[in-house]
Amino acid sequence: MLVVKPSSLGDVVHSLPFLNVIKSYFFNSEIHWVIAKGIEGLLEGHPMIDKLWIIGKDDWKKLSNVKRTISEIRNLWKDLKKEKFDFVIDLQGLLRSGLITVATGSRVRVGFGEAREGSKLFYTHRVKTARDIHAVERNLKVAEFLGCDTSPVFFPFPLYYPNPSIMSALPDNYGVFAPGARWETKKWPAERFGRLASLLTVPVVIIGNKSDKVIAEEIVNSAKGEALSLAGETSLKELMEVIKRARFVVSNDSGPMHIAAALGIPVFAIFGPTDPVRTGPYGKGHTVIRADVSCSPCLKKTCEDLKCMRSISAERVCEAMSLRLSSYLPVQ
Question: pTM of the full predicted structure?
């Protein structure tokens, strides 16, 4: 079988429980997965996945790469068809993923009944789900359609042996800040993260990719010596290991937030334009912090006001952390 779920990082994390129940039910199956270049580290070496199909979807959007893109897509379609998949599941629900699904030539192609961009036209079977449920549960509805028992919910991450040099740089007892996000509207101001770091009595490690280095340095400069930046310095697997060893994670609505929740690390998630019912940290023991504004959630990627994020103070987040973690995390 082929699972089409290229991105994004958090969305792929949400699909891990689906992978778990599918592999448990179809235990002799050979599972392939379409994943976007740049986040393949999340699934590389996964014992439940036999083959990853890595696509450069971001490069495909660039007009300067049009010739190479056409060649890559042509070869991808040809190679997928050779596999003769028994069935294909599209958990992305966009035009690109729908086209990949139909390109396989499989007689059974399953996707969401509410899929966007016309992708549902490429499916042989459509699964109707509610939009006001969490993405994890929505994916599991597809597994239920295929006859799987979807309880309990478990996130199977691949095993990883961490880089000793990265791990040795970490404090003995620390929290993690994940200040990045794909949308600018989902980013809590850097100075608030820095102020929060200065209020806590444990050091903070800042994580993120290379594009987060600037905001990470802003946080370090505002943290009065209480923050260490590893933004852009770790692989995805190393980033996961840093999260795994943390006491807590403070994050915007982002991929690292979902990784932390899936690993069972207490998450303090700062939400503005997005809906925590659908994309909040999944599971128990997490705290969502939101401003009481009528326009949230608006799901907008641009905004001139951003009062939903800017009206949340560091002191308010610190208070929420103190209430949840008072047993082992005193605050100043």
Answer: 0.92
